[in-house]
Amino acid sequence: MQGTIKERIRKNARDRQGRIRKELKVYDVKFRYTDNLTGESKETTKRGFLTKGEAEAFLLDLNNKLTTNTYLGDKPLLMSDYLTDWLEIYVKVNLRRTTYVGYKRIIEKHLIPHLGRFDIKKITSTEIDKMYAWLLQSGRVDGNGGLSAKTVLYTHRVLNEAMEHAVRKRLIYHNPVKTITNVPKPKRFKGNVYSADEILHLLELVKGTQFEIPVALAAICGLRRGECLALTEDDIDFDSKTISIYKQFLDLDNKATLGDPKSEESNRIISAPPEVFDIIKRHIECNAQKKEMLGEAYEDNRLLVCHDDGKPIRPVYFTKNFTRMIKRDKLKPIRFHDLRHSCASLMLRSGVAMKTASLILGHSAIGITADLYTHVMEDTKKEAAIQIGKEIFGTIEDGCAVQ
């Protein structure tokens, strides 16, 4: 058995009945263990057992845990310290910058204020349930009610990932997030989509403005906002009528920051109709005129979509201005991202294969495309059934089959 028990005398100590004794016999357990945080072998002593039997019971239990690699140590590890270290050592190194920024906001604004004072080994599902309930009811920074279920669900996912990491590092036995009862259930958002006619009308309204290229690329080619804003003249091949997408603008540190696409599959080369290339060519010529007028004051990044002085446009500002434009012109309410959904819907309804649509949209898996556009596929399945019926039974007219 690992560890030793030593007897010693404590001066002016309380016995089991709470009486102070000038001299009291106690037992200390000295042992070695491996620190799960550092991997180092350490020596420590558990002091003050009032009977030798209690010391022996502790040592027996300790040896069982050491044998099964389930000893966690007695030194407390505050959730605030653990989450901060996990964020900087794991998240910052292994995940995308935008993911890191999102996790950091969740950890600093929600998790540490509510759970930071707890020892990670003593955190319970009850405390987590209480935090979620508070966030849903009173979590807004301005004090006007609670956070959305979607925001709290994101908080839940970040905490779960952090605690799963702690289990793998043997800092805790069990992930308490697994046994909570207040898992948020956000309603699925249903955005509007534009028809082909509505897209053409929108393109007419934005002709010659900074919105024209992004609207065309999102609604006709399925590009994301950041991908549209990051395109340069070098990404356009007018001969082959293709567009290369391998970067996007992210809104980080209050500025447009160039970053990698959302996933590996988002790196892609797409084709586009000639009308889209006509729009791009006009804007390249317009940007060249502005560059000539402003001279050295023009920041030439070769961007297709930019401010009049050539500087990149922050994605968040672009979205706000797009929303204002939609309201100003009294168009059917639509988010800019919904133009991408409009493109996907039009592709699938026109008979484009799901796999092809997934590749054009840059989804990381075809299942994402299928899940997002289930409603469209229901319509196409009905149309397919009608077409099969026509092939087998002849044309259906007024309930009669015409052979």
From TrEMBL:
<dbReference type="Pfam" id="PF14657">
    <property type="entry name" value="Arm-DNA-bind_4"/>
</dbReference>
<dbReference type="InterPro" id="IPR044068">
    <property type="entry name" value="CB"/>
</dbReference>
<keyword id="KW-0233">DNA recombination</keyword>
<dbReference type="InterPro" id="IPR010998">
    <property type="entry name" value="Integrase_recombinase_N"/>
</dbReference>
<dbReference type="InterPro" id="IPR013762">
    <property type="entry name" value="Integrase-like_cat_sf"/>
</dbReference>
<dbReference type="InterPro" id="IPR004107">
    <property type="entry name" value="Integrase_SAM-like_N"/>
</dbReference>
<comment type="similarity">
    <text>Belongs to the 'phage' integrase family.</text>
</comment>
<dbReference type="InterPro" id="IPR050808">
    <property type="entry name" value="Phage_Integrase"/>
</dbReference>
<protein>
    <submittedName>
        <fullName>Prophage LambdaCh01 site-specific recombinase phage integrase family protein</fullName>
    </submittedName>
</protein>
<dbReference type="Pfam" id="PF00589">
    <property type="entry name" value="Phage_integrase"/>
</dbReference>
<keyword id="KW-0229">DNA integration</keyword>
<dbReference type="Pfam" id="PF14659">
    <property type="entry name" value="Phage_int_SAM_3"/>
</dbReference>
<dbReference type="InterPro" id="IPR011010">
    <property type="entry name" value="DNA_brk_join_enz"/>
</dbReference>
<dbReference type="GO" id="GO:0006310">
    <property type="term" value="P:DNA recombination"/>
</dbReference>
<dbReference type="InterPro" id="IPR028259">
    <property type="entry name" value="AP2-like_int_N"/>
</dbReference>
<dbReference type="GO" id="GO:0003677">
    <property type="term" value="F:DNA binding"/>
</dbReference>
<dbReference type="GO" id="GO:0015074">
    <property type="term" value="P:DNA integration"/>
</dbReference>
<feature type="domain" description="Core-binding (CB)">
    <location>
        <begin position="77"/>
        <end position="167"/>
    </location>
</feature>
<dbReference type="InterPro" id="IPR002104">
    <property type="entry name" value="Integrase_catalytic"/>
</dbReference>
<feature type="domain" description="Tyr recombinase">
    <location>
        <begin position="188"/>
        <end position="386"/>
    </location>
</feature>
<keyword id="KW-0238">DNA-binding</keyword>
